[in-house]
């Protein structure tokens, strides 16, 4: 187990857990002792991810589930299965979201925005609503939403993502107020540029076009975006932040958004 706070005895549910940040967060929770259920729409992908996560662990440490966050019936079924699996639920990580192509708002189809809201904002709400009756009220109950830097800073052609992410920030705050009566904490992390599979592939493609290495592409973007640490995040660094907010070390933290972006966003107050 990794050094640091322990999540032993906790049960977690992570949406979008078959790849990217969801996979990294699931891995971080497992490393700290939690049992983790991961959900995604692609059955083959979520089972393969569970096999990778379970390497060196017990057979009952990871539960793969096929679920679609845009379908309330699917979400309710998944949460019921998680609760039955370990007899309880402590941690929910809302991570599943759409992959959007950059586009100016003036040219975007309104259905793209509607679909993004349905998958991410309303999807997070569906999962949270289904989870709240199952989440522990003894102090271990926690919801962590994955937002994004576009909620806090302007990034060209990322208006749809920014609008949806900003809405998730509001959801986090309102839900934290309501869930506090049940002793459940609700927070969010806002990752910056992270070396996920998707971004690594984009960096490679951009490097070939620009006659640069993928690392040179990332370095240029880090400089252009003004990332204070002047590098991209490793997925494990995002996972560790989510695990912290789910842990007892964050027992007096709720309704907050933790920027995990190397200092890319620069609030003054």
From TrEMBL:
Keywords: Oxidoreductase. Belongs to the short-chain dehydrogenases/reductases (SDR) family. Pfam families: adh_short_C2. Coiled coil: none annotated. This is SDR family oxidoreductase.
